[in-house]
Amino acid sequence: MTTGEPNWDDIRIFLAVARAGSLTEAGRRLGLSQPTIGRHLRSLEDLAGARLFDRLPNRLELTARGRALLQAAGGMEEGAGALLRELHQAATAGTEPVRVSATSSVSLFLTAHLQELLADSGQAIAIGSSRARANLARREADIALRMRRVPEEGDLAARRVGRIGFALYAAHAYLEPRGLTGGSGLADLDFIGLPETERRPSQSAWFDGVAARGTLRCRLGEVYLRHRAAADGLGVALLPCFLGDADDRLLRLGDPVPELAEDVYLMLHGELRRDAAIRAVAEALAALFRRRRRALEGTRRG
Fold it and tell me: Which residue has the higher pLDDT, 22 or 286?
């Protein structure tokens, strides 16, 4: 058995592989190559004197020794996260903005109402747009706003703060030359698609079904790009109602689609609830979603 001290990078990578179930997925989450991940796992297995994973077709499965290490390593990660949070709060109390991580559509909503959010919270706020899960335990963000589902890992305090409705929109400048109105059919129109995905059900799959009535002209990955393309008259796009209804250049083509509505959850690490600045921003965010509920859901225009 190899002797020596455990390396935190080895532990961190082991945790990622155990949770992902494969080197490929762990590499994607960590931004590391498979050879690098494999090297760290071998180092940890040498130190443990035993295999930590059974290599099965298409996945890795923890051995008994691996399961024991996972339980201990999870405690180490939580302890390291608590230490980082305490150090960060002591070093930056009153000097740094509260960091909010949100999806691109929610980031657009927050930015549109940033003045009232700043006034209500009394705090400086930094908004970052990302689909990836922010690691709140390691202070990659102070607050995360995510859609559809809440991660179950870690000491997270989560609450549903709102729901976003989605509907089809096209520019007046696109519809009027064709003699169309909001009540017209969708046959033979041009469509601005979402990125393809194998996930079912999904907004992309639903929209592709609608777009089959006409011509799918392009796919755009971010909501602000689809909004811009629709406003420029390229065709029909699926947009959040708060975004499409507020743009006078656009006409909504029907009611919000019930099955596409997405719940928004506010999450923060359990220990951060003691931080007055973070708590103030969290309450201001929840209040903003309450005030704008009808516009978010698409039950009131504007």
Answer: 286
- Record the tokens describing residue 37, joined without a space: 């991940």
Round the CA-based radius of gyration of the chain to a whole number and report it. Answer: 23
Q: How many residues does the chain have?
A: 302
Site of tokens 């992309």? 204
Orientation angle between helical segments 8-20 and 23-30, nearest 10 degrees: 120
Number of DSSP helices (H) and strands (E) in the chain, helices first: 12, 12
Q: pLDDT by residue (tens digit) across 251-288?
A: 999 999 999 999 999 988 766 667 889 999 999 999 99
Distance of CA 212 to the CA centre of its chain: 28
Q: What is the pTM of this model?
A: 0.66
DSSP H or E segment with residue 239: strand 236-240
Do 237 and 189 form a contact (C-beta atoms < 8 A)?
A: no
Residue pair 42/7 in contact (Cβ under 8 Å)? The answer is no
Report which DSSP code applies to 81. H
DSSP code of 136? G
- How many other C-beta atoms are found inside a 10 Å radius of the C-beta of residue 3? 7
| Higher pLDDT among residues 184 and 212, named by residue | 212
